[in-house]
Input
Amino acid sequence: MKRISLLFVFVLAVVIGYAQKKEKPNIIIIFMDDMGYGDIEPYGMTGIPTPNFNRLAKEGMRFTHFNAGQAVCTASRAALLTGCYPNRIGMTGALLPGAKKALNPQEETIASTLKKVGYKTAMYGKWHLGNKPPYFPVHYGFDSFYGIPYSHDIWPMDYDGNRITDPANFRGTWPVLPVYQNDTKVDSILSLQRQARLTSDFTTRAVDFIKNNKKNPFFLYLAHPMPHVPLAASEKFKGKSELGLFGDVIMEIDWSIGEIMKALDKEKLADNTLLIVTSDNGPWLNFGDHAGSSGGFRQGKSTSWEGGTRVPLFIRWPGKIEASTVNSQLMTNMDILPTLAALTGAPLPSNKIDGMNFLPVWLGQTGKGPREVFYYYFGNNNLEGVRYKNWKLVLNHPSGSYHELHGKYGKPGTIARVDVPMALYDLAHDPGEAYDVQKLYPEIVEKLQALAESAREDLGDDLVKKEGRNVRKPAAVE
Output
C-alpha cells in the first residue's frame, strides 16, 4: 500500500511538472538585418510577393511605431537582447575584426533570463556582439549557437565576390568570414555562392531545433544576415521577383518565415508559441537597387531619422494575441525583454534596463502602451533626437545623408556628411519629417529639451561633452 502511494505521488509530481513546463509558451524571435519598414507587402512593398509575412499580419499583430534601439547592427542587437539603450552598456556602432570590446558577460540577455525559468535556448545566424570566444552566444545564456560573428560583408572580398588585392583597401586585411558552432570554427565562407546558402542553412537548423525541443519550453533566436549587402539568393529563388536580386532575397526570407510556421503547425506547437519577427534597423540606401525601402520615412540605416530606426514588427500567438490587428503604440526593441519576463514569470535583470512591459498591450488588456519617450542616440554616444508621444525634437548633430548618388548592382553610392539643425516634427501629421514646426510649438520644444537634459544626466551625450551617471562598461577584449 505504501509503495502504491509513493508511486502515485511520483506520477502526480511528473504530471504536474510537465504541465507547469507547458504553461510557459515557446518563444521565437526572427531578426532581419537592414530590412526596411517598406520591404514587405504588409508595410507597402510592391513587386515582391511575401505570403508568409502576409500570414503573420493576418494571424497576429502588426506594429506601426516600433523602433530599433539604434540604427546600426551591433547597437540594435545589444538593445534587443539586453533591454538597454546600447550606449548604457557601451555597445555602439558595428564591431569590426580586431574590435577591443564586446558585450559584457555580466549583462543579462533574453536567453539568460529565460534559462532561469527552464527554457532551452539556441541561436542561429549573425551575432555581432563579440568577435571571438569567450564572447559568443553560449556565454550569454544560449545553450547552442551556429552562425557568423558579424556582418557577412566583413570579409576580404570586393563587391563582386573577388579577393581584394589592392593594398590601399583596408577591407583586404579582414579575415575570411568564419562560421562557428558554439566556440569552434567549423567553416569559412569564401564566395557569394556560399553566402547564398546562409538563409536556408540557418532556417534548416532552426526547424530542427523546434522538432527536437517540442517537449519543453524553448527560446529560439534566428538572426538572418540579409537583406544586408552583399545580397545572395539560392538557386530556387534567383530571378523569382520583379525587383531583381533584392526581391529574390526578400522572397527567400519570406520562405524562411513560412518554414518556421510550418514546423510549428506540424509539431502542433503553434498555439503555444509566441512568434516575434522584426529587423535591426532601416535600409542601407546608398546601395540603391540592392537596398530596401524605408516606407516613405526620411533617410535610412545609420541615421536618427525615422527611416533609420522605424522597422516592422509582427507578433503572433494564436488565441492569445488578437489576429489581424494593427497597433500604433510607441514601442522599441528594448521593450521585448521585460515583456517576455512578465509573460514567463522570469526575474528582470539585476542591473538597470530601459525596456518596458508591453504584455497588457499584446494581450489586448489595454490600448495604451507604457512608453511615451524614446531617445535617438547614435555614434559613440551622441544624443541626436528625442521623441515624446507624437512629437520628435531633432537635435543639432552631424549625420550621414543619402541625398547623393545611390549605387547600382551591388556597388555602393556616396554618403554625404551634413550638419543637421534642430527641428521639431509632429509625426502624427508629418511622418516624413519634412516640416519644422518649432516656431509654432515653443512649449513642446521646451518640454523635449528638458527630456534631453534628463537623458544626458543618465546616459551622457558626447555632443555636449556630458558623461552619464548610469552607464556601464563593455567587456575589454585582448
In short: The first strand starts at residue 26 and ends at 33. The domain at 24-371 is CATH 3.40.720.10 (Alkaline Phosphatase, subunit A). The chain has a mean pLDDT of 95. DSSP finds eleven helices and 22 strands in the chain.
